């Protein structure tokens, strides 16, 4: 059975209404045939417009002489491309330093840029690992997906090629004293916004007094984040033991090629209820007898925030599916079973 997109269904319903208004059982056959042809032609035009007319982002101009902005695309040069594992690369893009925006608050602790595939005019958001430096360099860890148009296109680019970007766009805003504890849960390249956040917190925000725990999952050891990400994270944990912990999980140990030199404890299995409960520092602050009545009592009153980013199936299992058009939607999955509410959970 053919299933139509919501907008498509509106067009179909509208066409059906018009058909019933224009034709009658007793109308001449020639009139009915002409009317049907008109309706089919009109519906085809509407369908074509729905699928092929450019959206606002596709119509954004390219500007090479004004600062980087979400309202237009800026040419950036690919200055390095390094394979980190099977199917992933570290790509570094550079824009002229004079095109960096002067407003520093645009670069929130978690922000991204859209990268456009010039061949098919499709764009996708990507998170610069280290933000942007004074020379306009932005570094990305990007996985090549079989059905990912932009990721496949990016993996085909050579050093020296020009790639168009627009942004920055804030993904999530940091608040120093809003949370006593933040739990970051990521899968695959979903760790990139969390790396960006942690780097901002532990490199440029020493006044933070809360506690952050990162739980990250990869399919195999060889698909763990590269040294560019792992090494700084391990240093953050070493230098801030009271403020930052991290724990890695894999579905299968598989081959260790590319990661054998990392002294890292990795747990086998998915990130589940017990893993999350064990990561919560505040749980140990309650007297033992409270667990006799409700193991997860009063969780909605704690100043705890969960940020979740990764493959959709993982996000759904941990925090429930996204809402329509990737809105937050209700909390579900493991976090719902633990009693957490929408104000304590954010899906990136």
From TrEMBL:
<comment type="similarity">
    <text>Belongs to the flavoprotein pyridine nucleotide cytochrome reductase family.</text>
</comment>
<feature type="domain" description="FAD-binding FR-type">
    <location>
        <begin position="71"/>
        <end position="175"/>
    </location>
</feature>
<dbReference type="InterPro" id="IPR017927">
    <property type="entry name" value="FAD-bd_FR_type"/>
</dbReference>
<dbReference type="GO" id="GO:0016491">
    <property type="term" value="F:oxidoreductase activity"/>
</dbReference>
<keyword id="KW-0274">FAD</keyword>
<protein>
    <recommendedName>
        <fullName>FAD-binding FR-type domain-containing protein</fullName>
    </recommendedName>
</protein>
<dbReference type="Pfam" id="PF00175">
    <property type="entry name" value="NAD_binding_1"/>
</dbReference>
<feature type="binding site">
    <location>
        <position position="124"/>
    </location>
    <ligand>
        <name>FAD</name>
    </ligand>
</feature>
<dbReference type="InterPro" id="IPR039261">
    <property type="entry name" value="FNR_nucleotide-bd"/>
</dbReference>
<feature type="binding site">
    <location>
        <position position="143"/>
    </location>
    <ligand>
        <name>FAD</name>
    </ligand>
</feature>
<keyword id="KW-0285">Flavoprotein</keyword>
<feature type="binding site">
    <location>
        <position position="192"/>
    </location>
    <ligand>
        <name>FAD</name>
    </ligand>
</feature>
<dbReference type="InterPro" id="IPR017938">
    <property type="entry name" value="Riboflavin_synthase-like_b-brl"/>
</dbReference>
<keyword id="KW-0560">Oxidoreductase</keyword>
<feature type="binding site">
    <location>
        <position position="126"/>
    </location>
    <ligand>
        <name>FAD</name>
    </ligand>
</feature>
<dbReference type="InterPro" id="IPR001433">
    <property type="entry name" value="OxRdtase_FAD/NAD-bd"/>
</dbReference>
<feature type="binding site">
    <location>
        <position position="150"/>
    </location>
    <ligand>
        <name>FAD</name>
    </ligand>
</feature>
<feature type="binding site">
    <location>
        <position position="151"/>
    </location>
    <ligand>
        <name>FAD</name>
    </ligand>
</feature>
<dbReference type="Pfam" id="PF00970">
    <property type="entry name" value="FAD_binding_6"/>
</dbReference>
<dbReference type="InterPro" id="IPR008333">
    <property type="entry name" value="Cbr1-like_FAD-bd_dom"/>
</dbReference>
<feature type="binding site">
    <location>
        <position position="125"/>
    </location>
    <ligand>
        <name>FAD</name>
    </ligand>
</feature>
<dbReference type="InterPro" id="IPR001834">
    <property type="entry name" value="CBR-like"/>
</dbReference>
């Amino acid at each position: 059975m053919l299933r139509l997109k919501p907008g498509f269904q509106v067009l179909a319903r509208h066409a059906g209404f018009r058909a019933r208004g224009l034709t009658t059982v007793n109308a001449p056959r020639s009139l009915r045939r002409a009317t049907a042809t008109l309706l089919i032609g009109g519906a085809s035009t509407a369908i074509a417009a729905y699928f092929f007319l450019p959206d606002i982002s596709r119509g954004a101009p390219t500007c090479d002489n004004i600062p980087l902005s979400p309202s237009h695309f800026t040419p950036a040069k690919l200055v390095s491309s390094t394979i980190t594992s099977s199917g992933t690369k570290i790509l570094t893009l550079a824009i002229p330093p004079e095109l960096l925006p002067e407003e520093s608050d645009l670069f929130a602790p978690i922000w991204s840029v859209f990268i456009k595939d010039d061949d098919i005019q499709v764009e996708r958001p990507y998170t610069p690992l280290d933000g942007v430096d004074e020379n306009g360099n932005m570094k990305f860890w990007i996985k090549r997906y079989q059905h990912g148009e932009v990721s496949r296109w990016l993996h085909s680019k050579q050093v020296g090629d020009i790639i168009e970007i627009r942004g920055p766009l804030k993904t999530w805003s940091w608040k120093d004293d809003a949370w006593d504890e933040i739990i970051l849960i990521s899968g695959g390249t979903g760790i990139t916004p969390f790396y960006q956040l942690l780097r901002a917190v532990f490199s440029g925000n020493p006044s933070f007094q809360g506690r952050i725990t990162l739980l990250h999952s990869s399919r195999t050891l060889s698909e763990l984040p590269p040294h560019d990400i792992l090494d700084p994270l391990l240093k953050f944990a070493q230098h801030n033991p009271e403020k930052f912990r991290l724990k890695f999980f894999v579905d299968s140990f598989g081959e260790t090629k590319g990661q054998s030199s990392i002294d890292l404890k990795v747990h086998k299995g998915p990130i589940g209820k017990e893993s999350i409960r064990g990561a919560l520092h505040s749980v140990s602050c309650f007297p033992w007898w409270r667990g006799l009545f409700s193991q997860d009592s009063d969780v909605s009153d704690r100043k705890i925030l969960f940020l979740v980013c990764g493959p959709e199936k993982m996000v759904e299992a941990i925090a429930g599916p996204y809402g329509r058009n990737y809105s937050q939607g209700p909390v579900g999955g493991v976090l719902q079973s633990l009693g957490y509410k929408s104000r304590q959970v954010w899906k990136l």
